[in-house]
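Q: Predict the assembly, please.
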Amino acid sequence: MSYYVTTPIYYVNGEPHLGHAYTTIAADVLARHMRQRGEDVFFLTGTDEHGEPVTQAAERLGITPRELGDRNAGRFRELARALNVTNDFFIRTTDPEHAEVVAEVVQRIYDNGHVYEGTYEGWYCPRCADFKTESELEEGNTCPIHKIELELEHEDNWFFRLASFQERLEHLYAERPDFVIPQNRYNEALSFIKGGLRDFSLSRARLKWGVPVPWDRSQVIYVWIDALLNYYSALAYARPGEDLRDRFWPATVHLIGKDILKFHAVIWPAMLMAADIEVPRRVGIHGFLLLGEHKMSKSLGNVIEPFRVVELYGADALRFYVVREVSFGSDGEVSPDGFETRYTTELANEYGNLASRTLAMIDRYRDGIVPEAPPDTALAAAFDQLAEVVRERLDDLELTAALDEIWRRIKELNRFVQEEQPWQLSKDDARAERLDEVLYALAEGLRVVSVLLHPFMPESAERLLAALGREDVSLDCARFGAVPGGATVGELGQLFPRVEAEAPAA
RNA sequence: GGCUCCGUAGCUCAGCGGUUAGAGCGCGCCACUCAUAAUGGCGAGGCCGGUGGUUCGAAUCCACCCGGAGCUACCA
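A: Predicted assembly structure:
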């Protein structure tokens, strides 16, 4: 089965921050998990580089939009690398191949009769060189940035007949209750649709930084139309000489933050319908990572700097933390203290130390060879159906719940050690058989959780599995008792060393 | 204003008609010594936002009130 997962393409008018890292990490967890299952996976991320804010940001820096795009696209690529993310392609909307596909699709929407010439009326700020929305306006119709009084101006541009898709969209939602998840976002999108849709302009007459409208080169395609099409266009040219659209379209899941719900849950499917292209299987929405009381944002200066955390603690620690701390789909608070606590208590003490004590005991009591023994029945019961549950959770985009299932087993293993007291068993030759069972069960349990943890913390899981002498990470072998004893264990060192450093926040 | 959601232990949250309301973190006590001074057990702590109602029975259903959040379209 093919599995195509995307992140939004990130807007290059600013530096990457934890919010970007969050979506990218989540997408990577899914991509890696599906690869474990043996699925045919394509994972896309990239950058959105057109539009007004980019030209403005570039202007402020005294460089061209293209240069700004190059610079920040590079930063987003570095972020993906730092996070140990396995995207199969990195798209930029300034790729000429992307522009070609955009022009093609928009032309088709036009040819299909879903576009007409209209007049956009709005509050125009000459200093911003942009129209302001009603909600942006301040007292007395003034620009929120320049505080000058704005005039109601007109612009002739091209309109997309979104309103005419209302029925088809409602039908889509009725037919596919999981088109948008979680449920509350589905409801939100549906009620928006039911509230009545209005056409909107798909071109901008005053801008130059974008993809030209094919039948009217004096205008440029509205950034969002341009941007959304990345999911489709990338497949056309990611592999030279191959059109991956046959293999991976429609997309399995678009992962997005809640702020861009409508674009993905309403406009995007309508656009695809207008162009006779199949709509994606589903749109998965996650919440915001909050720091203190506020949404994390650069302007508030409360950003946890992902590059810095990775440098100090490693990519796995950050990947783990964001998935573990905030229930995927909801907003949740993150903090340097919270990170510290989870790193120390869970990664170092519970998981890392479980690995240490297990390997040490196998080394000490059985000369570094995992004993061959029948699987302990109590632990076997505790691990029963674990892989299946994790599968289901991830199918439902419940990343946090999936991780929690795994983590409960880690705690179970620590409890098992305490109850069985292998150090006592080792003193009594009559109980050697039980010691074999206990050590095998520990090695096996540790192996299973590590295989399941692999999508979340690939590097650590691999290191641990290598130390256990069993490196297969396919989901099929994530069953307690699936692999017999007999392996020679190796050196591991500290998986998550304690870090005596200042807080990870910037 | 309209629609939707939420208010449960100090903190974050689960439970959503049926025995004495749960988890994690934090706090206190105890046990163990294999391990990154890690681990395990026990305990303290809650008029389940308020008021009325439905019911044999409500944190769980209904109404209203108080408090908070989201959405109510062309910012990416």
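The two ends of chain A are 42 Å apart (CA to CA). The domain at 2-303 of chain A is CATH 3.40.50.620 (Rossmann fold).
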